[in-house]
């Protein structure tokens, strides 16, 4: 499952950060997981408790921002909302566009004690 490997690698990265500064536990974790990142949030929240069980993240308050998909058309420069990466421009129907937001998959902030 994709979400399990995403959650596992987040835990691994956070653990490394905690080790670096010899912290004990993580109080808060801020993630950014865009609507176009391919991560299904229901599945993510389902696997998350298994991934943090017994490690530095066990007591962590998790905050997840989910930026919506935004794109700019390469033909007419219209900015529009997209649900899927292959959505076309609503103005001229062109499939060519630059994705401005929604593909984020990153750790924004870790608060370590
Ligand atoms: Zn267009």
TrEMBL record:
Where along the chain is Ni(2+) bound? 2
Q: Which GO terms describe its molecular function?
A: nickel cation binding; zinc ion binding
Q: Source species, please?
A: Flavobacterium phragmitis
The record's Gene3D superfamilies line, in alphabetical order, gives: 3.30.2320.80
* Domain of life per record: Bacteria
- Give the gene symbol: hypA
Protein name listed in UniProt: Hydrogenase maturation factor HypA
Q: Which HAMAP family match?
A: HypA_HybF
Give the protein family.
Belongs to the HypA/HybF family.
Q: Which GO terms describe its biological process?
A: protein maturation
Q: Which UniProt keywords apply?
A: Metal-binding, Nickel, Zinc
Q: Which residues bind Zn(2+)?
A: 73, 76, 89, 92
Role according to the record: Involved in the maturation of [NiFe] hydrogenases. Required for nickel insertion into the metal center of the hydrogenase.
| Coiled-coil positions | none
């Amino acid at each position: 499952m994709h979400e399990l490997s995403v959650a596992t690698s987040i835990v691994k990265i956070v653990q490394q950060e905690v080790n670096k500064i010899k912290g004990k536990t993580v109080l808060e974790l801020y993630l950014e997981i865009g609507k176009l990142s391919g991560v299904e949030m229901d599945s993510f929240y389902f696997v998350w408790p298994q991934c943090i069980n017994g490690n530095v993240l066990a007591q962590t308050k998790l905050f997840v921002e989910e930026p919506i998909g935004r794109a700019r058309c390469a033909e007419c420069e219209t900015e529009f909302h997209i649900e899927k990466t292959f959505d076309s421009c609503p103005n001229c129907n062109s499939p060519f566009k630059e994705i401005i937001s929604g593909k984020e998959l990153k750790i924004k902030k870790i608060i370590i004690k």
